[in-house]
Amino acid sequence: MTDTEIAAREPETAGDGFGLVEQVLEVYGANEEVSDELGLLIGRRGETLAALQYIINVLVATKYGNDHVVGLDIEQYRKRREQTLIEMARRIAAEVRETGDVITLEPMPPAERRIIHLTMETEAGVRTESVGQGENRQVEVLPADGGD
Amino acid sequence: MKALVEYLARALVRNPEEVTVEEEHLGDRVILRVHVSDEDKGRIIGREGRIANAIRSLVYVAATRAGVRATVDID
Question: Which residues of B make CB contacts under 8 Å with A?
Answer without folding.
Answer: 8, 11-12, 43, 46, 50-51, 53-55, 57-58, 60-61, 64-65
